[in-house]
């Protein structure tokens, strides 16, 4: 997820102007859960400062630091002293619904795995089934026995901690929760599975934020707390926070969410599935489409930004243009850890870290990644 995670943990990246983790907690609260343990690691204070003890949401939150990142089983094991009954494990980087969580709560088996039907199971942990029970978990098999991929959300008995302590390190040197589950199955426990048939969005790459943002905004209900000048146009479901000014000539088509104390317009065009955080400036003759724009960023005038994720404290020089479509219509590849990765997206603009500044008339090619703190020069073409 870098460079977006240079200054925050992944779970605190915004989707629909709320951190990913807040969406997960809110859905769990809607399902009736009131007690949470958050296992933290990288930049844990970002999480603790935001959620505190949970009282603002009417819940209790405890925190435990996983000092050494040693696998999923190890992470869950860190929470043992806080757990005295059956419990649910939710990964902090995927969007799920309260209905899905409630379905887990209502199950009677010793443990339950969530699974998702996928077209290519080779890249996932895949379950083997015996009737309505799980008999085996196979990690990334060459010949998958089913198309049921492990979705990474679990209902566990307290006894899972005993098996985590007995779990040896995997070939990649980690304690894998799937190995602990297999030990639980081999000991004769009843382990069922729950198939997710509706929304389940795993946010593993920067462009996944765009899919998650679109999904969240699809359920948006409009609410305007801003000053809207008389010749601005707002269509569809648009949310605008207090202290924001929507100036004459601005044209906004929802679903769009705009935060607090923003300055929007005049004469700009904000298209659907765009989320703009607080203290953002969108200026004259700017067009934005299907984007995530984080706090304190300035896209002042004469710019186009489409299908992009823009970090905090960025500044677009006048006339900065972001390309988001290949001429041949093929999916766009992005450089990740030194390798080109197929995003699977036909349209994708720029992934921009925090505090990036572009010079006047900068042109940015499809699928570019601009690292935190980078600058471009006058008229520069970024390939």
UniProtKB/TrEMBL annotation:
Pathway in which this enzyme or protein is active: Nucleotide-sugar biosynthesis; UDP-N-acetyl-alpha-D-glucosamine biosynthesis; N-acetyl-alpha-D-glucosamine 1-phosphate from alpha-D-glucosamine 6-phosphate (route II): step 2/2; Nucleotide-sugar biosynthesis; UDP-N-acetyl-alpha-D-glucosamine biosynthesis; UDP-N-acetyl-alpha-D-glucosamine from N-acetyl-alpha-D-glucosamine 1-phosphate: step 1/1
BP GO terms, sorted:
UDP-N-acetylglucosamine biosynthetic process
The EC number(s) given in the record are 2.3.1.157, 2.7.7.23
Can you tell me where the transmembrane regions are? none
Can you tell me which family this protein belongs to?
In the C-terminal section; belongs to the transferase hexapeptide repeat family. In the N-terminal section; belongs to the N-acetylglucosamine-1-phosphate uridyltransferase family.
Q: Which NCBIfam families match?
A: Arch_glmU
Protein name, per record: Bifunctional protein GlmU
């Amino acid at each position: 997820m870098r460079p977006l995670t240079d200054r925050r943990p992944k779970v605190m990246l915004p989707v629909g102007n709320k951190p990913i983790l807040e969406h997960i907690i809110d859905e769990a609260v809607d399902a009736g859960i009131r007690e949470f343990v958050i296992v933290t690691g990288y930049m844990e204070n970002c999480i603790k400062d935001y959620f505190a003890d949970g009282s603002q949401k009417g819940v209790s939150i405890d925190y435990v630091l996983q000092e050494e990142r040693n696998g999923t089983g190890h992470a869950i094991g860190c929470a043992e002293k806080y757990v005295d009954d059956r419990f649910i494990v939710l990964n902090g980087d995927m969007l799920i619904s309260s209905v899905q969580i409630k379905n887990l709560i209502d199950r009677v088996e010793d443990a339950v795995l969530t699974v998702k039907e996928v077209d290519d199971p080779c890249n996932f942990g895949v379950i083997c089934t015996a009737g309505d029970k799980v008999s085996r978990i196979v990690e990334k098999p060459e010949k998958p026995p089913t198309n049921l991929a492990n979705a990474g959300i679990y209902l566990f008995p307290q006894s899972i901690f005993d098996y985590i302590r007995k779990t040896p390190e995997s070939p990649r040197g980690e304690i894998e929760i799937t190995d602990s589950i297999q030990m639980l199955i081999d000991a004769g426990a009843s382990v069922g599975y729950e198939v997710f048939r509706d929304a389940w969005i795993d946010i593993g790459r920067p462009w996944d934020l765009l899919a998650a943002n679109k999904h969240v905004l699809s359920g948006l209900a409009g609410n305007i707390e801003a000053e809207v000048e008389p010749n601005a146009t707002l269509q569809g479901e648009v949310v605008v926070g207090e202290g924001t000014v929507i100036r004459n000539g601005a044209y906004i088509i929802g679903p769009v969410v705009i935060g607090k104390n923003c300055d929007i317009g005049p004469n700009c065009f904000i298209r659907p599935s765009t989320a703009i955080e607080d203290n953002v400036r969108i200026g004259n003759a700017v067009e934005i489409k299907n984007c995530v724009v984080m706090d304190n960023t300035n896209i002042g005038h004469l710019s186009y930004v489409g299908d992009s994720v823009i970090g905090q404290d960025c500044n677009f020089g006048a006339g900065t243009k972001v390309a988001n479509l290949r001429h041949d219509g093929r999916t766009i590849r992005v450089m990740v850890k030194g390798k080109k990765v197929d995003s699977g997206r036909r349209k994708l603009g720029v992934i921009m870290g925090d505090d990036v500044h572009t010079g006047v008339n900068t042109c940015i090619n499809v699928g570019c990644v601009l690292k935190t703190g980078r600058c471009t020069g006058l008229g520069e073409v970024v390939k």
